[in-house]
Specification:
The model has no long low-confidence stretch (mean pLDDT 94). The protein has a domain of 95 residues: Orthogonal Bundle (Arc Repressor Mutant, subunit A). 46% of the residues lie in helices and 10% in strands. The chain has 20 helices and twelve strands. Strands 1-2-3 form a three-stranded parallel beta sheet. A three-stranded antiparallel beta sheet has the order 4-5-8. The chain has a two-stranded antiparallel ribbon with strand order 6-7. It starts with a strand and ends with a helix. The relative contact order is 0.09. Helix 16 crosses helix 19 and helix 17 crosses helix 18. The structure holds glutamic acid. The site of glutamic acid has 8 residues, from helix 6.
C-alpha cells in the first residue's frame, strides 16, 4: 500500500502542542512507510478566520522541520491544500448524496432548534435534531430552497450500533441513536468539517487518518459518509489526550500550549519534537533522546497507547538541556548569541562565557542571567558565601593567588589550573577550602559556571582587583 497521511489543522492563530504531536505522528509514520505526508488547511469556517493564522502555522511547522509532500492534483508541489478553495468539489459531492436520498435540506430555524434543544435537556434525553425535515419531498424542498434559508443534513441511521476498528483504541462501538443528523453544508453554503474532511481524505488518497482522540465520536458520521459515497474508508488512529500533571485536560492558556511560544522561550525544535513524539508512544529502550531519523526508524503505529499522556514541562526542560549540552559548538554559539538581549558583552570573550554555561542551560532564554556572572559586577555574597570567605586559610590563599597571577603575562584557564595545583601542594589547602574562596572572591556567588572559564574571561587585572578587594 502507498501510505498517505495528512495533517489537517484549522488555522486558529497558533499551533497547539497537541496539533504538533498529531503532525509529528503523521509525518513520522509516512516517512517510515516511504509514503506521502500532505498538509491541508481546514479553513471553511468563515466565522473563525484569524488574520495571519496560516502564515504563522506554516512558519511554525517550518521551524520545527516538518516538511510536506505534494498530494494528488498538487504535483507541482506548490503549497498546501486550502479547503476554502475547494467548495465546488464539496457542492458536487453533496448533490450526489441528495440525489441518492442520503442527505436532505433542513429548513428549521435557529429558534426552533434552540427550543428543541431546551426541551430535550429538560426531558433529559440526548440532544440532537429530531428529523422534522427528513420527510420533505425533493420537489417541495427544491421549491422552498429558492426563497428559504436551509442547511443540508446527512440522514444518519437511527438504530443499531456503529462498530469499527481503530488502530489505537481497538474495537469501538457507538450507538447510532447518539449520532445527530449531521449538518454537511451550512446556510452560508460552506461545507462543515465532516463533509469536507471525508471528501478530501478520499480524493487526496489518504490511507491513514491519525488525529486527536476528540475526533473519535465523529467517526460513525465519517464512516457512514464513506459508505453513502461508495468509497473505502481510511484506517484510523486516534491519539490519546494530552494532560496536565494533575491529569486534567491540558490547559488552554496559549502561553502554555502554543508551539511558537515554546520556541520563543528558548526551546529547541529538536527537543520539542522529541518530547512530543514520546507523548503517546515509547520505543521502550532506556534512552529518551531520539533524533528524527531514530524516531522514524523506531516508531510503531500499533504501539500507540490509549492512556492520556502527561505534558510534563520538567521533562521537556531536562530534554532541552540535553539538546543544548550536546549541540554542535558552532550552532550553539550562533543560537546563543541571539538571546543576549541588551546585555553588554565583551565581544572578544563572549564565546568563552557562552561555552561556560552550555552544559547548565535549560533553555536559551536563561543565557543573559547565566552569563551575568561574566558580564556584570560580582554580587554581594550571601551568608553561605561569606562563610567561604572566612576560612582560616582564606587570606593566605588569596595572597598566594594574587602573587602567582601577577607573575604571569596573560591568564588562561590552563594557567589557572596549574596555579591552583601549586597552591594546593605548597600550602596543603584543598577542596572547598581552596576553590570556594576563589569562586566567591571572584563572583560573589557560591554556584556558577566552571571557574576556569570565569577566570579566563575576567583576565589577569580583574582577577587581581577582585581578590585584592577581599584581602584588604
Ligand atoms: N481540522 C481538524 C482539526 O483542526 C482536523 C481533524 C482531523 O484530522 O480530521 O483538528
Amino acid at each position: 500500500m502507498n501510505v498517505v497521511t495528512r495533517f489537517a489543522p484549522s488555522p486558529t492563530g497558533y499551533v497547539h502542542v497537541g496539533s504538533q504531536r498529531t503532525a509529528l505522528y503523521n509525518y513520522i509514520f509516512a516517512r517510515q512507510q516511504k509514503g506521502k505526508f500532505i498538509l491541508r488547511i481546514e479553513d471553511t469556517d468563515q466565522n473563525r478566520y484569524v488574520e495571519g493564522a496560516v502564515e504563522n502555522l506554516l512558519s511554525s511547522l517550518e521551524q520545527l522541520g516538518i516538511e510536506f509532500d505534494a498530494g494528488p492534483g498538487k504535483e507541482d508541489g506548490k503549497g498546501p491544500y486550502f479547503q476554502s478553495e475547494r467548495n465546488e468539489i464539496y457542492s458536487r459531492e453533496v448533490k450526489k448524496l441528495m440525489d441518492d436520498g442520503k442527505a436532505y435540506r433542513c429548513f428549521c430555524s435557529e429558534k426552533r432548534l434552540d427550543t428543541l434543544r431546551k426541551e430535550q435537556m429538560e426531558e433529559q434525553i440526548p440532544t440532537g435534531y429530531d428529523g422534522k425535515c427528513r420527510s420533505i419531498k425533493r420537489e417541495v424542498s427544491d421549491e422552498r430552497a429558492k426563497t428559504e434559508k436551509f442547511v443540508i443534513r446527512l440522514k444518519t441511521p437511527r438504530e443499531g450500533i456503529c462498530e469499527f476498528e481503530d488502530i489505537v483504541r481497538g474495537e469501538v462501538k457507538i450507538a447510532w441513536f447518539q449520532i445527530d443528523d449531521q449538518v454537511l453544508v451550512k446556510s452560508d453554503g460552506f461545507p462543515t468539517y465532516h463533509l469536507a474532511n471525508v471528501v478530501d481524505d478520499h480524493y487526496m488518497e489518504v490511507t491513514h487518518v491519525i488525529r486527536g482522540e476528540e475526533w473519535l465520536p465523529s467517526v460513525p458520521k465519517h464512516l457512514f459518509l464513506y459508505e453513502c459515497f461508495g468509497w473505502d474508508a481510511p484506517q484510523m488512529a486516534h491519539l490519546p489526550l494530552l494532560l496536565n500533571p494533575d491529569r486534567s485536560k491540558l490547559s488552554k492558556r496559549q502561553g502554555d500550549v502554543a508551539v511558537e511560544d515554546y520556541l520563543k522561550k528558548g526551546y529547541t525544535p529538536e527537543a520539542l519534537n522529541n518530547f512530543l513524539a514520546l507523548m503517546g508512544w515509547n520505543p521502550g529502550g532506556k534512552s529518551e533522546i531520539y533524533t528524527m531519523d531514530e524516531l522514524i526508524k523506531a516508531f510503531d503505529i500499533n504501539k500507540i497507547t490509549k492512556a492520556g499522556a502527561v505534558f510534563d514541562v520538567q521533562k521537556l526542560d531536562w530534554m532541552n538541556g540535553q539538546y543544548i549540552k550536546n549541540m554542535e559548538v558552532e550552532r550553539y554559539l550562533n543560537e546563543a548569541r541571539k538571546w543576549l538581549g541588551d546585555l553588554e558583552v565583551n565581544e572578544d570573550k563572549l564565546d568563552t562565557a557562552l561555552m561556560a554555561v552550555k552544559t547548565s542551560l535549560t533553555t536559551f532564554k536563561e543565557i543573559p542571567s547565566k552569563i551575568a556572572v561574566f558580564t556584570g559586577d560580582p554580587v554581594e555574597p550571601d551568608l553561605e558565601g561569606t562563610e567561604m570567605l572566612e576560612f582560616e586559610s582564606t587570606k593566605e590563599v588569596f595572597e598566594a593567588y594574587v602573587e602567582k597571577i601577577t607573575a604571569l603575562d596573560e591568564l588562561k584557564s590552563d594557567d589557572f589550573k596549574n596555579i591552583m595545583k601549586e597552591i594546593q601542594t605548597e600550602m596543603g589547602v584543598k577542596g572547598k577550602y581552596l576553590w570556594m574562596p576563589i569562586r566567591v572572591g571572584l563572583t560573589g556567588a557560591v554556584h556558577g559556571p566552571e571557574l576556569g572559564y570565569i577566570v579566563e574571561y575576567l583576565g589577569k587585572e580583574e582577577n587581581i582587583k577582585r581578590i585584592n578587594h577581599w584581602i584588604n
